[in-house]
Amino acid sequence: MGHPGLSKLDQLCVDTIRFLAVDGVEKAKSGHPGMPIGLAPAAYVVWTRHLRHSPANPQWHNRDRFVLSGGHGSMLLYSLLYLTGSGLTLDDLKQFRQWGSKTPGHPEYHPELGIELTTGPLGQGISSAVGMAIAQKYLANYFNREGFPIIDYKVYVFAGDGDMEEGISSEACSLAGHLGLDNLVVIYDDNHISIDGETELSFTEDRAKRFQAYGWHVQKVDGDGNDMKKFERALINAKSEVDRPSMIQLRTHIAYGAPTLQDTAKAHGSPLGEQEIRGMKEKFGWDPDKQFHVPQEVLDHMRQAVEQGTEAESQWNALFEQYAEKHPDLAEEFRNAAEGRLPVKLDRVLPKFEPGKAIATREASGKVLDAIMPKMPLVLGGSADLTPSNNTRFAGAVDFQKNARGGRYIRYGVREHAMGAIMNGISVSRLLRAYGGTFLVFSDYMRGAVRVAALSKYPTIFVWTHDSIGLGEDGPTHQPVEHFAALRAIPDLLVIRPADANETAQAWKYALEHPDRPVGLLLSRQGMPVIDQNRCASAANLSRGAYVLTSRGNPEVILLASGSEVQIAMEAATRLDAEGIPSQVVSMPCWALFEKQDEKYRHSVIPPQVAARVGIEAATDFGWHRWLGEHGVFIGMQGFGASAPYKACFENFGITTDNVVKAAKEIVRKLKEQGR
Predict the structure, then answer these.
(1) Residue 265 has pLDDT above 70, yes or no
(2) CA angle 252, 254, 255 (to 5 degrees)
C-alpha cells in the first residue's frame, strides 16, 4: 500500500512502526493498536525529518520536545524510540505492559529514555506541552544573546479526540493562544472514532474554528493520513508561523489497513487478533508469520538519528563553549541550573518573623517570595486569577506575556486545572521551577495534574491558600474540610501546612531545595501569631515533618496540630500545665516527611507510652487515627463549614481551646482510672 510523498524505504519504515505496535499489543493481549497504525506516517515524517533530538543523550537541553498526549497509543512512541536508538530495545517492546518493563501501558516520565512527560489521563499531555513552550520562551529570553541561540527548540504534540474533549485542554490552549506560543505545534489525529463509536455521537463542534477562535494558526490535511507530502507542507508552515501556536487537523483512519477493523471502535483499545493481523500484514506485503520484524535497512535508516543527533548536539556544545567565553556569568548560571544548584543560599535571604505579631501564612508566603524571588530568576510564579488573595506576585514581578517573554509571573486566568498541568510542563525543563496559586478548595479542579505530578515526581510547587473554615464568610462552598486528607492520600505529594510565618519560610526553603517531588503549601487566610522561637523549638524543624514545639516535664498528654490550630494547642497546653497536667505540643506541618523519619525520632515526638493524645485540625478526621492511637480524641470538623466570621466558625464547630482542654483532661482521667 503506497503512501504519497514516501519512497519505498520510507514506506517500509512506516509499516515497521505500524507492525511493531500491532505485535506489541497482540503479545501483551492488551493495548491500543488503532492510533499508532493511523498516525505512523505522520510520526515517521516528524521524527526523521523535523524533530531535532539526540538519541545518544535524550536529555540534551536544546532538543525539540515530543509529547504523545494520547498516551494510550504508547506503542507508537516506544517503536519510535527503539528505531531511532534512544535506549529502548526490541526486548523492551516485547515486554509491553509487563511487570517491571520500561514500556508501561501509558508513557511514564522517563527523560533518560526520551519520554518527556507522563501521559495517559487525556488532556494532561497537550496542556503540559503549553508549559514546555512557555519554558522555552522564557529560557530563550533569559539566556540567548546575539549570535548565540542557546535555547531554540520547538514542542511537538500528537493529540486525539479525547485530548480535545477534556476541559483541561480548552483551558490550556486558550492561554497558549493568548500568549502567542509559536513554538508549539499540535498534530490532531482526527480519526472520527472514540471508545463508544463514531465521534459524532457526542463531538460535532468545528474544532478548527474553535482553535482559530483561541488565536491559533490552523491547517487541515484531508485524506486518509498517508499523504505525507501534503502533511509535510503543513508541518513546514506550522514551524514557520510567527506569533501563534499551530494546530494541524490531520484526517486519519484508526487501524488503517486492517481488513475488518479499520474505522471501528474495537480497534481503539483491543488487540486486533491473530487473523486480523495476518490479513493486514498480507495486505501490506508483510510476512504474516513474522512478529516484531525489523528489516535491517529500516534500522540502518532510522538509526541515522543517532549520528545526526550527536552531530547537532556537538555543534551546540561548541556554540555553548563560545557562549561561555563571551558570557561566562550566564553560562555558569546555566550549568548550575542544569545540575540543580540554587543561585543563593536560602538561609541568607529568608525573612525572619518576630513574635508578637499576627500574620496570615498566605501573607507570610508573599513576604518570603518578595525576599527570595529577585535572587531566583529561574523560578516562575503565577495564580489562577487570585493574585491579591494568594499573595503569589512578588515585588518587582513582570507579567509573562506575548510581548514580555522575560516576565516571571503568569496570569493563568480562571483555569486551575490547566495551571497545574502547565506548571508541570515548565518544571520538566530541568532548568526552571514553577509555582502557582489558587484557593485550596479548588485543588479539586486541578487534582488530575497534581496526581500526575506526584506520580512523575515533577518538582512543581502548588500554593493553596484559604486553607480551612478560617476563610470565614465565603462559606462551605469555599471552605475546604476534606482536602487535607484527600491531598495527603496522594503518594509522593508533600503536603505542608505551616503553623506560622516562620514555618512558612521554612516550607518554601524545603520546597526549593528538594526538587525531587511536588509540594503543596496549605496557607491560611486569617492572621496567626508568630511563634516565639526563643521559647519554642526552631521552625527549621519543619524539614522533619513534625516536631516537639513545647514540652513540659514528662508529658501526660500529647497535643498534635497543624496550621492555625497549633496556636489552639499551645493555649491549651498553658492551661493544662496550670492545672497540673504536663503536655507536649507537636507541630505537624507535613505528615509525609514525618513518616520518613527513623523510629527513634518519631517516638521522641509522639512517645508511644503516652496514650492520652488530642489531634486538632480544622478538617475532617480521616487519617488522624494513625497518630492518635486507641485512646486519642480528635477535635475538628464533622461535616461542611458555614458562612460566618471565622472566629464564629471555630467557636460553633467546637475547635476551641476550651474543648481541647476538656478533651485532654477527660482522656487523662479515664486512663488513670484504668491504671494506665
Answers:
(1) yes
(2) 125
